[in-house]
Structure formats: structure tokens, C-alpha cells
């Protein structure tokens, strides 16, 4: 391609030349039409062949009655400003005030002005010295005109013409810049005004005289009553004060109206109508889901103060807020304004509006009046399971084995509910320890449904773009793109493994290489390494060998590569509940009693029994 500012054939030697597209003598046709309805079309623009200075300045008047003037078959021109080098326009079927860069059509002549619904233009993509060097193509043909440059954020663009100070008109026409009679303008002089070519001068009024613009001469000053002067002064001051107050009021009202229109625009763009229909069509959702105003959430978060930030997730930023009814909430807003992010937001509201479960984060409502959509849900004070397992050890936040089993069972119950008990099946698609929050009682709360998918009852899987977190991502889903409930089972198996070995899902080996925790676990099991050498010291101290073997067996089944060989979330939940029940009974039993009971999951060497046999013995357990 030719460099910016050059036109021609880049495949020829010296084929790229400077812009020579402007012709100041292009108006060859007599009596060119210069009006389209109520819009004036000055030269160098034109609506007929032989009436415009270059091809890009051709305008099409498609309807004189409605003043429809087209540029580039897309922009409807409303004003052409010669002095400012500005074109104002509207775009059909789009909101008034929207901006579409002209650079898609002509990057050299038209550039974005920075204002709404307007752009600047230049006559040629040349510097002023380059343009003046070619007298036959120089656009500033009028006497008393001069060349001016236009720059953009990307660098130099080109030049255009203006009339000199004291002159006005069209600098692109011979004799187009005419002298301005400054004396016709009010309060130009404190005396007699004399117009000159390109300027003016004043004659001072004699003592006790003033200039009379009606008589165009001096008039003597008459003595005025002092009281009248005071009255006039007070009246003037009161008038100025009244106008100032009215101006402030009208300005504030104008800004409020603009703000309301902007919020309505954001509401439409953020799929607000779709969300309202969804909430109104679901009786359960309408009872508990509220559409918040932006003022409520700004007040709740101290105008989204940075000190209120709780954390940054994969789908947005979370703030802590206090509503007017003193409820403490977490307010989440997306980081990026993209169609995909907005759809994830609507998806999360759609899912949470239909879910009521003690181990799933509770939705309070949402706000669509901001550029970035907001979601309001219950504040979970004790952070995430990930922070307890892998946070700063100095904080003394060790998680006991009993709590680990309870939290795992609660999270498994929530996922089981999503898969099989909710009104519409839900595949979470991003199960991980950082998305399992702990409330004031350290009860597990599954959160972050931005990547989840609603699934019809008659479908076993859905085909989606692969989403998730490395270390937790189901390999089968990664390679096939088919999401099913067993994908969540794999991710939960990694969480269960974190509870067992207290290592992060992506760990660094002794050689310094990165490795998935699940791959590490399966490799150690394959090499017959004793399970006691893999689990965390705290788990080894608190859990029995039978419990460790049971959980290890459950992990092994959850992270199998083939999804059809993994248990369901219901089976996983039942296994964990059975293990908790057995542990509770064991703790209550007398030290001298050794009640033999068949464990749900046993490991003999490296052969793992199937869950089907074990659940036959747990079918009658109370839940």
C-alpha cells in the first residue's frame, strides 16, 4: 500500500505520489445548484458533475422536500461548515448522536472530529508548503485567504482554507473572502467607528458626549437623577441574579434529561427489555429479583469507591455495598463492554432468578442503567474456599477435615440441584474453589454463573465455545466442545483433590515445570505411591486412613478422562454424605467398640470399586 498521504500504484517505481485530487477550477458548469431543501452546499462540495472540486466532495440530493443530502451513500448531511471545516450528519436507523468514523470510506480526506455526529474534512492530504508549491492545484484561491493544517490523533491529515482576520466568505472561490464591516457589530467602539479593509478604528467621543448608533454621530450626555441610577442598578442586578438562577436550573434540568436518555439507551443496549420479560414471566423470579436504580447502587458503594472492591473475577469486578435497608450486598459489574459480556450478565441473572437453594448464592437484583451492567447478590463475608486452602498461612485459616467434608458435601449438593432438581437443568461450566464462597457460618455457597448454560430437560449435552479455568477444565469438553453434567463432575473432582492434598490446581514440580493437579494425582496413583505420602499433613493427622482412601477413590472416579465413566453429582453427594455420617457415628462410638462397616469406597492396591455397588448399602440412609 502507498504510505499515508500518497496515492497511486505501489507496485510501480514512483507509482505513489502526493495527493493531487483537488482541482480549484473544477466548477466548469454554469449555474450549479447549491441548495438541497434547506441545506446549503458551498463549493468545493457539489451535487452535479462539474460542480465539485474532487470526487470525495460529491453529494447526492435524493429529496429536496425533506432536505435529504447523502454523502457516501450512508451519511445524511445536515450542515456543511466552511469556516470550521466540519460536516454534521445523521445515520438512518441509529440513535441520534452516535458517531461512525468516516475513515472506513476515505481515511485521507475525512477524519473523526471528536464531537458527536460530525467529522472534519480537508481539501487534500498535503502540507501547506506542498499545496502552495503547486499553484494550479492550490485550494485557497481567494485574496485574503490562508492555508491551515489539520492534525488528528494519528498524525498529520491535510490542509484546508480560511479567510483572513477581518474577512468572511468562501476562501475556495475567487473573491470569496469579503471585508467584514466591524462597525455594524454592537459595542465595537467606545466612540465613533470607522471601517477599514480587514479592520476598523475608533474615534474617542468628546467630553460629556456618547456615540449614538442611530444618528451615527455624537450626542451630549444628559444629567441623570441619582435615585434613577440606583433603581436601574438594583433592577439590573436583580435581573442578572434571576437569569443566573434560571440558567443554573435549566442547565441542571438539561443535564438530568441527558442522563435519563443515556440511561434509557444503556437499558436497551444491555438487553433490559429481554430481562424484564424474563423476570415478569417467572413468578418466583419476580418475587425476589429487583431492578435497582444506579443512584441506589452509587450510594451503596460510595460512588464505587476503590476501597469497596472485594475482588476481580473472570467475568467482572465485585464491590461491597450497603443498601438503604442496611442489607450488605456484593455488587458485580462486567469489566468489558462487549456483546459476549452482556450476554453472560443476562445469562447469570436468568439462572439465579430461577434458583432457590441454601448453598447457591442468593440474587437480590440487577441494574441496567449504567454503561457496565451491574448484578446485586448476597454478600458472603468469609471469602472463598480457595483463600482458605491456598491463602496466606500467617492468617491462621486452616480448614479442619470435618469442615472440608461438610463444605464438599454442600457444594456437591448445590451442583446436584443445578443438574437434576432445578426447573431447568444448569451446567455451571466454571466449578472451582474460588467460586465456592463461605458465609458467616462457613456454609458453602456456589457462585459466579456468568459462564453457565441452561439446558432443556430432553438434552444430555450442549455444544458451546469452550470456557472454564485451566486446572479445572474437563479434557473431554475441551477437545469435543460438548458440555454435559460430567464436565462439572470433573471440575468438582479437582476441588475435592484440593481439599485432600491442599495444593493449587496448577502446581510447580520439583523440576520447575507446570503440571495439572489431577494429572499429578493420577500419575502418583499409577506408580503405586502410597496415598498417605500425597495427602496434606493436616488431613493425614485428622482423617482416618479409610476416609482418605474413600475420598481418593472418589477423586479418581471424578477426574477420569471419559465422562461416561465418571459418577453423577448425585452419586458424589451421596458418597460424601455417607462418609460424613460414618465419621459422625465413629466419633460418637465408644473407644472399646469396633463396629465393622463396609466402606463406600475402598482401595485395594490400585483397583477401585465402582460406586454402583456401594450405593446399594447407602440407599436407606437418612439425608
Automatic annotation (TrEMBL):
InterPro entries linked: EGF-like_Ca-bd_dom, EGF_Ca-bd_CS, Kinase-like_dom_sf, NOTCH1_EGF-like, Prot_kinase_dom, Protein_kinase_ATP_BS, Ser-Thr/Tyr_kinase_cat_dom, Ser/Thr_kinase_AS
Listed CDD domains: EGF_CA
ATP-binding found in the keyword field: yes
Example GO biological process: cell surface receptor signaling pathway
Matches recorded under PROSITE patterns: EGF_CA (PS01187), PROTEIN_KINASE_ATP (PS00107), PROTEIN_KINASE_DOM (PS50011), PROTEIN_KINASE_ST (PS00108)
A molecular function (GO) term: protein serine/threonine kinase activity
Pfam families hit by this protein: EGF_CA, GUB_WAK_bind, PK_Tyr_Ser-Thr
Residues that, per the record, bind ATP: 332
Swiss-Prot/TrEMBL keywords: ATP-binding, Disulfide bond, EGF-like domain, Glycoprotein, Kinase, Membrane, Nucleotide-binding, Serine/threonine-protein kinase, Signal, Transferase, Transmembrane, Transmembrane helix
Membrane-crossing segments per the record: 226-251
Location of the Protein kinase domain: 304-579
Membrane topology of this protein: Single-pass type I membrane protein
Localization per record: Membrane
Top-level taxonomic group: Eukaryota
Gene Ontology CC: plasma membrane
Name of protein: Protein kinase domain-containing protein
UniProt organism field: Digitaria exilis
